[in-house]
Design brief:
By secondary structure, the protein is α+β, with helices and mostly antiparallel strands. The protein has 17 helices and 13 strands. The radius of gyration is 29 Å and the shape is elongated. Pfam families: GAF.
Length: about 450
């Protein structure tokens, strides 16, 4: 658990601050360097609780050691057009001018940087004097790089995202050795309407950032951003975290609906096809794969698909990822629930879940394939179970009215003398004639 602020007689110790008032930065940096070396060699953190390694840092070191090479650099995940599309649609883009107003002076002094990351630790913006940015590039502190704890080790944005609290990380408190010449302070930013984590705002620079001033400044900037977002209701879904419940409704309708809490986004036909296909492929699809699923063998300009995805990203925000294209969070789709009932061979539950064909008006090859799998799966399960009541429900529905296989199964399942048997027999003969089959 994250440490709480502790108060003692005559003094207040803030565990989120890197240095106590009056502490010697050079001396503390040396102590931390030695403690870091001991941790890497022996896996132990020595000293009393109020020693050189704070509890919040020690906890982060332990987490980082399970995932990160201390000599490695943070990986670059977003570049060029993909980065630009993603960050322009991110909710924190709305408060970037505010961050620049509040923290730009620090970033412009030639020694410090202003950075903003998303909830996964991807740096969206890194701004400041050219010289400071050039130095930061050597440790991959650049837009598009992943700086959460599991990819970059202990650092202020990564720890702030993990523990949900503003924090400073000083010198060798950083787990990754290439980052240890730097000091940073970061504060998480939340969606004021849902409480969901959106990302963090950070200032990074030299040892002089290890003061109460920098921590208070990023905390104030984060609160100002949340206040600004609270007064400006957006039309896009907020960034979804691991516990978010995003549902997709696409059975029996051509305009799929994405829902997250009180937010509801109704998609057009093409965007419905894209979201359904991405929900069917949670691992993601490349541009070529998605194009094949949507358009088949039709020769289309690649710009067509990129334009559709760009428009969709403006609707969904960072819920949509690229390279590969995928949905960033698990989406609970009604057709996936239906598929689970089919896998469980539960015809009654499957029939209740089936509200019609998947995007019935779509001719996208990937959607057509999924639609046929579901329709055939329901029909085959009902035919195999031979329950007259379930078969009758299917054949009375618009999608089962012309299903000759289901009608034949219903006729065979009805007991002799049943009043419904005559009607079923007539319907079978009508369909035989319609399809040019021999009369029976």
């Amino acid at each position: 658990m994250a440490p709480e602020d502790a108060e003692s007689e005559g003094a207040v110790t803030n565990p989120w601050l890197a240095l106590e008032s009056g502490a010697d930065a050079t001396e503390r940096a040396g102590e931390l360097r030695r403690a870091h070396e001991r941790f890497l060699s022996a896996g132990a953190i020595d000293g009393p609780i109020d020693g050189p390694v704070r509890a919040v840092v020690a906890d982060s070191w332990r987490r980082s050691a399970r995932a990160v090479d201390p000599d490695a650099l943070a990986p670059l995940e977003l570049t060029d057009a993909g980065l630009e599309e993603y960050r322009s649609a991110h909710p924190l883009a709305k408060v970037l001018p505010l961050f620049r107003d509040l923290l730009g002076g620090i970033a412009d002094d030639g020694r410090h940087l202003l950075a903003v990351c998303d909830a996964a630790g991807r740096l969206l913006w890194v701004e400041g004097h050219r010289g400071a940015r050039a130095r930061a590039e050597r440790m991959n502190f650049v837009a598009g790089a992943r700086w959460d704890e599991s990819h970059a080790g202990t650092n202020a944005p990564g720890v702030a995202l993990t523990v949900g609290h503003p924090v400073q990380i000083f010198a060798a408190e950083h787990f990754a050795v290439p980052v240890q010449p730097w000091t940073c302070a970061a504060a998480p930013v939340h969606d004021p309407h849902t409480g969901r984590l959106l990302g963090a705002v950070d200032v990074t620079g030299g040892d002089n950032l290890a003061s109460p001033y920098s921590l208070a400044l990023v905390q104030a900037a984060a609160r100002a951003a949340e206040a600004h977002l609270a007064s400006n209701h957006g039309a896009t879904l907020p960034v979804a975290g691991p516990a978010s419940a995003v549902t997709l409704t696409a059975l029996g309708r051509d305009d799929a609906v994405l829902t997250e809490g009180p937010r509801r986004i109704r998609l057009g036909p093409r965007h419905s096809e894209i979201v359904v296909l991405l929900a069917c492929h949670p691992g993601g699809l490349s541009s070529d794969q998605l194009s094949a699923e949507l358009y088949g063998d039709r020769m289309l300009n690649p710009v067509t698909l990129r334009a559709e995805l760009s428009r969709l990203r403006h609707r969904l925000g960072p819920l949509l990822d690229s390279r590969p294209y995928r949905l960033r969070v698990p989406v609970r789709a009604d057709f996936q629930t239906l598929a689970e009932h089919l896998a469980d061979a539960n015809p009654d539950a499957a029939l209740r879940a089936y509200r019609g064909p998947l995007l019935p008006g779509s001719d996208a090859p990937g959607v057509v394939w999924q639609r046929r799998l579901l329709d055939d799966g329901v029909r085959d399960l009902l035919v195999a179970r031979r329950d007259p009541a379930l078969l009758e429900r299917w054949t009375r529905a618009p999608w089962g009215r012309d299903d000759i296989v289901a009608w034949q199964a219903l006729l065979a399942a009805l007991p002799a003398g049943s009043p419904a048997r005559a009607r079923a027999g007539r319907r079978v003969r009508d369909l035989d004639a319609e399809y040019g089959l021999p009369s029976r």
